[in-house]
Design a protein that fits this description.
Length: 347
């Protein structure tokens, strides 16, 4: 699957342009056209104009956290405790139900390509590694003993521990926003499908920067904000679906250089990106100097260990789970369309 590569921070409005088919995306875009944008480390907010200004929370140059959720975007599962319980149940069926419909092996391998896992001796951390599906892609290129899987869900990690190719990996519980690795530790930071649950994604990306060695590379894979109104509604109720511009901005603010974004998605979507979840992206950046990120943030706001008010937690959890159900129907609907609509035509 060929992908669109974007370099730097500028002029990403082109991605929001409407196409003749109204999808905000053309099939030819998805299948190989390559666009380049000027590289720059200046604040992306001043360079990027969003077409969904009123709906998308922005990291302004003065903000120190990206954790705010406007009332139009309650994101009920973008909280650590809710995500913990979500995966308490989802872990039971995750490998059988979630990945085949949302995150396929060929997508994974395409998405990991920009990580440049070129040496078996590289030290790699897989953050939000869950049941180890993405780690299985990593250990094709890197010795398992050099790979650490970190996740806040012991239930997801229990599934990873059962996998034979991962038996030599280090498997630890931890928080993506507060990694238990020393500064300048790893050659590669990988995180797939986890940022959408982080209450403060900018903090997680700042941590990615900190734990990498000089010249190390972060590869963060995640969904994109849907443009189809119903998918956008359910996405905003469920969790964080960042825009492509936000990914670039978070990486740039954390201090990464050579920030690039590669679009990914399953073949049966034929390039349609309006539903957001699995039509996502793989964002990479290189650490240009050793030490911590130049970005200063205030204290962490949420901890999975913190007790919650059950009267607030429960309704939030139930509404979030209901919204998530929409995204089990979308891939089936798109698959059926792919079967019915003649090949070569837009769906
Ligand atoms: C969709 S799963 C992705 C799992 C795996 N990376 C894969 O590719 O299949 C998201 C994972 O992120 C984990 N997660 C969510 N918030 C986290 C946090 N703050 N710190 C660490 N892991 C987190 C969840 O527990 C879950 O296992």
């Amino acid at each position: 699957m060929a992908s669109l590569m974007l370099s730097g921070t500028g002029k990403l409005t082109v991605l929001n342009n409407r196409t003749p088919n109204g999808l905000g995306f053309t099939t030819s875009d998805f299948h190989g056209k390559s666009l380049s944008f000027p590289k720059s480390s200046i604040n992306a907010t001043s360079r990027v104009s969003y077409s969904r200004t009123s709906l998308v929370p922005k990291c302004s140059s003065s903000s120190v956290s990206s954790s705010s959720r406007p009332s139009s975007q309650p994101r009920f599962i973008q909280h650590k405790k809710e995500a913990y319980w979500f995966y308490r149940f989802l872990s039971i069926v995750y490998d059988h139900v979630v990945n085949p419909g949302h995150w396929t092996e060929d997508m994974r391998d395409e998405a990991l390509e920009p990580a440049e896992l070129t040496d078996r001796n590289m030290l790699v951390v897989d953050v939000g590694g869950g049941t180890g599906f993405t780690t299985l892609g990593i250990v094709k290129h890197v010795d398992a003993k050099n790979v650490t899987i970190l996740d806040q869900s012991p239930h997801q990690l229990a599934k990873a521990k059962e996998k034979e190719p991962l038996k030599d990996c280090k498997i630890i519980e931890g928080d993506a926003e507060d990694l238990p690795f020393k500064t300048d530790y790893a050659d590669r930071y990988v995180s797939a499908g986890s940022i959408e649950y982080w209450p403060d994604p900018q903090r997680g990306i700042k941590e990615a920067y900190r734990v990498l060695k000089l010249g190390g590379k972060a590869c963060l894979i995640g969904p994109v904000h849907p443009t189809f109104w119903l998918s956008r509604f359910f996405a905003d109720v469920w969790m964080l679906f960042p825009t492509e511009e936000e990914y670039i901005e978070w990486f740039t603010k954390a201090g990464f250089k050579n920030v690039q974004l590669k679009r990914i998605g399953p073949k049966w979507y034929r390039g349609v990106r309006r539903h957001g979840l699995i039509m996502g992206c793989s964002v990479t950046g290189v650490k240009p100097a050793s030490g911590d990120s130049p970005l200063q943030l205030g204290p962490k706001e949420e901890d999975v260990e913190k007790p919650v008010d059950p009267f607030v937690f429960l309704p939030r959890f139930i509404l979030g789970v209901l919204a998530a159900a929409w995204f089990t129907l979308v891939p089936i609907y798109m698959w059926l369309k792919d079967q019915i609509v003649p090949k070569g035509q837009p769906i």
